[in-house]
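re the bet — no i am not wrong, look at it urself. input seq straight from the record:
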Amino acid sequence: MRRATLETMTTLQRLKSLCLLSAVAVEALALAACAGDEREGPEGADTMSDSRGESTGGETPMNPATTADPTTGQATTGDSTTGDSTTGEPEESTGAPAEDSGSSGGDEALSLAGDWTSPCFDVGDGTFAVLDFALSDEDWAVDYQVYGDDACSVALVTVHIEGPYELEAPSAVVDGAWDGVFAFDAKTITPYAQPLVDALDGAGCGADAWEIDVGQSVAEEGCAAFGQYPLADCAADYDIVSRDGDTMFFGSRPMDNDMCTPERRPVELSPLPLTLQ
């Protein structure tokens, strides 16, 4: 297995913008990578760990690990022509209803149920991550997994979040998207390298001393170093979501990770695609 390396602080700052980590957590990730802590990903990392299957999008056997442009990654459409091309006669209709793909469109309720995964994406010069989501019709869960190698096998830390959700109405600002409220029942952080353990202890996160491979709840008190607010201050994310066939996008998160009120709802979609498994 290749040794994990984070080549520049610029890379870590990009990671901070995506993972919404504080400077303390960014420094810890740098130390973990520079220490060359060779570790395989957490067992079952390719699947969601709870209700929402939150496996944030069931991040695993997804589509190829390519960062498809969300503007071009939409499902292809079939031939728009009808009828027999050799005879010019229209084909007989079977009367069978078209299969529901759950795609956004009109005022019809959007279906998000399933396991969704992102590619193993490069967040900058040696730092990589995967999002695994698992959603039912009522609950969601996500694992944000940070790695030190381009195969997403050298695990550094996982942030797991789960809870109920509700889609409210079509978005008034993003065509084809829906407004949703994604509530929090649980928030857990699991470190896989000693520098992350030390950073979490130093930041005062969690009720107990941290250990490698042992997750702890940060729901009640939060963990500012990893962008997690206490439940009393932030009970849900007010987000947007769009689905086009087997591809889904959530809203683009702000740098402060504050989507805790309707006024903080994103006004554009994230460029990172999630693929239905």
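see?? The chain is about 10% helix and 25% strand. told u. also Helices lie at 9-19, 23-34, 194-202. so pay up
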